[in-house]
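Homework-ish question, so no full write-ups if that breaks the rules, but can someone show me the predicted structure for this set?
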Amino acid sequence: MATATGPTLADIRDAQSRLDGVARVTPVFSSETLGRLCGRPVWLKAENLQRTGSFKIRGAFNRISTLSPAERAAGVVTASAGNHGQAVAWAAREAGVRATVFMPEDAPTAKIEATKSYGADVVLTGSGFDAAAAAVDERVEAGETLVHAFEDERVIAGQGTVGLELAEQLGADVATLVVPVGGGGLASGIALALDELRPGLRIVGVQAAACAPFAGSEPTGNTIADGIAVKQPGELTSALLAERLDGVVTVTDAEIAGAILLLNERCKLTVEGAGAASVAALVAGKAGGEGPACAVLSGGNIDASSLIEVLRHGLTRAGRYVVVRTRVTDRPGNLARLLALIAEERGNVLGVDHHREGMDLPVTGTEIELTLALRDEEHCAELLGRLAEEGYPVERLR
Ligand SMILES: Cc1ncc(COP(=O)(O)O)c(C=O)c1O
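A: Not a homework solution, just the prediction itself:
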């Protein structure tokens, strides 16, 4: 089917026929708020609304539906940081094939539970994607078929169907497409599909700064974009992307958290770290080019507890959650006066802590730490200014 340079446009079209009625044709939305923030019209390809919550079923189903009868009987196996595992479990169940998924012990709970719920045997191994990948080898030697997360032409062809949809959905004026890159299967498939269909389109890959081998850096630690934290990209995908991408940029976890918050609050879209990396790159002005841009939101599988953390972080960065420390004399009514002043300034008090013991304070003094919900940085500056004017010594902690 495919050449040594990856699947052809015809292979991707075949994958699209196989996926007809299986994968959703996901919508493309425009966002006025994002457009304003990025200084250019922005479109969002919402693969977070795909079945199983990410684009991954496209590649997994295309691979599994082309197995021989003997391969189907022996079952499939894969290693996955999460989304690919869910997709293989789901696609195998659809095709009536047994699946085993090796996952890192630190994979998000939502992804582990979802993979189990689709009927796969889930085996938790060490930490990170690479440990899970090593555990697969034994099963392959015993005769099971590996459904690789990215280094496989039929998987790449399946992911390429996102590109075929974009060719239909995007206006001719869209000049830049931003795609999250982990192992590189998604970006390779999209780039191959759009090579002929949109020859002038700039395609920019995005990686998390903490793990960005395609951007030429050494991994430095964990990231909230677990779906794209692949330390060892594929040979095939590396070769394909080296020729076809117009660049790979990196975004920090703080930028990704900001993008998750924006997508949640302004676009009503729940998007995981890896999926929001594309928007983070656009908002940070890192995607380059001019004119309308499209960001692929590649997945939406984020644990509720991680989402809460990320939103809290994003609100803090935006000056909307603030922690301030001040001091008052420990007399009845002093705390009430302080709180009344904050209420006058329309600050919402989320928490109050008194500290006396172990502090370097006058005998009659008490330290008060306030957690406040405010509108934005400007509101925060106004409130802190007013407190200072009224004689409170204020220190902003967060
Ligand atoms: C949400 C999400 N986005 C992007 C990617 C990156 O895909 P690829 O490994 O094909 O580059 C993944 C991979 O798991 C993912 O889960």
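Now go work out the reasoning yourself. Hint: The pocket of pyridoxal-5'-phosphate is lined by residues 54, 81, 83-84, 149-150, 180-187, 227-228, 230, 272, 274-275, 298-299 (CB under 6 Å).
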